[in-house]
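Hey, I'm writing a tutorial for new members on how sequence and structure tokens pair up, and I'd like a real worked example in the thread rather than a made-up one. If someone can provide the structure for the chain below, I'll link this post from the tutorial.
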Amino acid sequence: MRRGEKEILPLWFRTTLVLTLLLSLYFAYSYSLGKASSMQLGSTLDASAHGQSDVVPVALRKLNFVDLDEGAVSIIDAENGKELLLVNKGEDGFVRSVMRGLVRERKAHGIGPDIAFELILWKDGLLSLIDPATSRRVELSAFGADNVAAFSRLLPSTVNAPDTLWL
């Protein structure tokens, strides 16, 4: 600052602003570390690790999503390598958008496609799609019956009855 010029913001205000910003960042970072360390990675069949100690899984299917030519996506059963569904460009918008969001999160964390996603039908009829690599969980039942049906067809046929699902 040159001699004779007046400060736009006083020093005490600038210092307070910087300290407030640093403290906010510190607490946000501490909170996210505490939340991440409290979650257990691994099999999502341990319902207590996902805040559902009173809910039991009925069915689980591990899925891989593979991008194909011209915007198509192949959904593959990770256990046996069989294709469950081919989603062409412009079809199944909800399935594609959920899948893209999960894959985008993996890319942001530098995680590849090695770990399969888990589609879980819980005993209470709710349907979840979980990414064990990032611990991200999408409660599909919150998006309505049509969107639950879009994913429920990927479950094993023994549990794919409408009366099993919460709609």
